[in-house]
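Researcher: Structure prediction, please.
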Amino acid sequence: MADDRDEVDRTTVVETGGGGGGGAVLAVVLLIIVVLVLLYMFRDNLGLGSKTTVDIPNKVDVNINHS
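Model: Predicted structure follows.
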């Protein structure tokens, strides 16, 4: 009786989840982080965040002449 059955073709479909675009997003995020870290490290050489020195005198002489 097992020989009386018709053969049936079976197909298995495997979904890959969108083509793996997550790797590209991760690469872009890592690239942005690396660029920001390099900008922070070399900010003085690039002229970013230059330090300004302000001199404040210890004494201020003010003359007020009343007539």
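Model: The helical segments are 22-41, 43-46.
Researcher: Thanks, that helps.
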